[in-house]
Amino acid sequence: MTEERLTFEDMQAYIGTSAPPHVLRLEHEVVRRYVEAVQDPNPLWLDEQFAKNTRYGGTIVPPHIFSTLMSITPGSHESGVIPVPVPNVPLPRDNVLEGEETWEYFTPARIGDVITSTCTLTDVKVREGRLGEMFIMVCEAESVNQRGELVCRSVNTIVNY
Amino acid sequence: MAQQVFYEDVAEGQEIPSLTKHCTRRQLVMWAGASGDYYEIHYDTEFARKNKLDNVVVHGRLKASFLGQLLTDWIGPDGAVKKVSCRYKGTDPTDEDMRIRGKVAAKREKGLVDVDIWTERPDGSVTTQGTATVELPQHNA
Predict the structure, then answer these.
(1) Which of A65, A72, A98 has the CB atom closest to B60's CB atom?
(2) What would the pLDDT profile of A82-108 be if each residue is shown by its tens digit?
(3) pLDDT in tens, A13-23
(4) Closest CA to A134 of A81, A86, A93, A82
(5) Domains, chain B, with CATH or none
(6) Distance, in angstroms, between A123 CA and closest chain B CA?
(7) Please, are residues A114 and A23 in contact by the beta-carbon 8 Å criterion?
(8) How many Å lie between the alpha carbon of A10 and the closest alpha carbon of chain B?
(9) Which chain A residue lies closest to B61 (C-alpha atoms)?
(10) Structural domain boundaries in chain A
């Protein structure tokens, strides 16, 4: 192999890099397709009649929809086939697996909301695993709605090998 | 929908109602379209093999969504999910039953309950492991 591959030292320089803010419009169709794919028929997501008598006073977007946020970052596919949370950071290796994630939820999101998320690469580690040398990349994101209210905060790690 | 569960009704160590999923490649394609995750290891066998996998694998974030569904089904429309963490420990093939399970780990103040959550394959191996904090309504709040 003569090609130059990014090293652990190269990657340190990218820590602190943020992706451009990502805007997601939570249109009805986005939510409908999501719950259809998950096969999650909870009436709290799409049935206004049902939802108006709950603590939320109307439908809310399933909190777990934010698990998709990384994937639908525009530009996340430009470098190839792999969706990455911070598209302006190069991946040192070719393959990606998801590692570990945490989501914290604050103001519930609703259909019609416009969610703006900012994602930052906060750490890069390297270790040997069953797939050989692996880069562990840690990304932290914050999502706010159109009123500036915090909706979700997340930390995710991807394994690049 | 099951009846609303209240904070007073739950006990530490209690298992919450599980979900069973049976992911087909079709469902992974639906998820790819809904989420925008078009990574080929989730629908292209040859591509998956080139990536050191035996075959296509279920998206980690689809499993995270199943864990979310497990929680929101259980806590009912008057509960709230506060925090979910999970670690992807292993990959899951398509066309087998996946059980999504949870157990009450701790009851805290103000209706908050910690839950251990996981997904498992038919042989009982755990492929996603996590914890969550939910808020349940209280009878006397």
Answers:
(1) A98
(2) 556 677 788 888 877 778 999 999 999
(3) 999 998 888 88
(4) A93
(5) 15-135 (3.10.129.10)
(6) 17
(7) yes
(8) 24
(9) A67
(10) 8-26+69-160
